[in-house]
Amino acid sequence: TTKELVAKLELNPGQKVLDVGCGVGGGDFYMAENFDVEVVGVDLSINMISRAIERAIGLKYTVEFDCADCSKKTYTEKTYDVIYTRDAMLYIKDKPTLFRSFYKWLKPGGQLLITDYCKSVGSPSSEFAEYIKEGGYYIHDLKEYEQMLENAGFDVIVEDRTDQFVRTLQQELLALESQKDEFIRDFSNDDYNEIVERWKAKQIRGERGEQKWGLFIAKKI
């Protein structure tokens, strides 16, 4: 998935990329190594950033990491060619303000690529609503998401990638089930059952079209 999505950005050597919600930096290392771009990864989790920094030691390409809240962070205007964020915006309550910041931080013609959990139009089921509440998520339908980006000034292309999301969950479930004994040995049977139950619930919501996965490619005009 990372390779396919990054290919859409048509990165060029020397470009500057900001990854918001970078986790342990997997996508950042991939972009820097394969496209010779300069990447800054930002994440709120000190554990994730610490692991990313450890992975970056001794590398010959340019990847930096910053532990920060992207909704409170400021960067110099017109700094980045690309802003890249994968399944992280669902934690952001005030997306319109952050999207306006993204627009400012991008150079003219710069691109924003977002993948994120979304929902179908209308009120979610009680089960999905509870999932959203427990996670502390802020989830929108695809059209609402598109409108927020357009209001920030972007020219937006939207793709409903829910089918891909469901297929990926199926593959991950099969992989987890094949490693059940090792997983239980390292963690517990309860942990295993909880993960399987949550992933299957996501899969069911995706199959019935209630939980969606959106891809948004937005260009600074």
From TrEMBL:
<dbReference type="GO" id="GO:0032259">
    <property type="term" value="P:methylation"/>
</dbReference>
<dbReference type="InterPro" id="IPR029063">
    <property type="entry name" value="SAM-dependent_MTases_sf"/>
</dbReference>
<dbReference type="Pfam" id="PF13489">
    <property type="entry name" value="Methyltransf_23"/>
</dbReference>
<protein>
    <recommendedName>
        <fullName>phosphoethanolamine N-methyltransferase</fullName>
        <ecNumber>2.1.1.103</ecNumber>
    </recommendedName>
</protein>
<keyword id="KW-0808">Transferase</keyword>
<comment type="pathway">
    <text>Phospholipid metabolism; phosphatidylcholine biosynthesis.</text>
</comment>
<dbReference type="GO" id="GO:0000234">
    <property type="term" value="F:phosphoethanolamine N-methyltransferase activity"/>
</dbReference>
<keyword id="KW-0489">Methyltransferase</keyword>
<comment type="pathway">
    <text>Lipid metabolism.</text>
</comment>
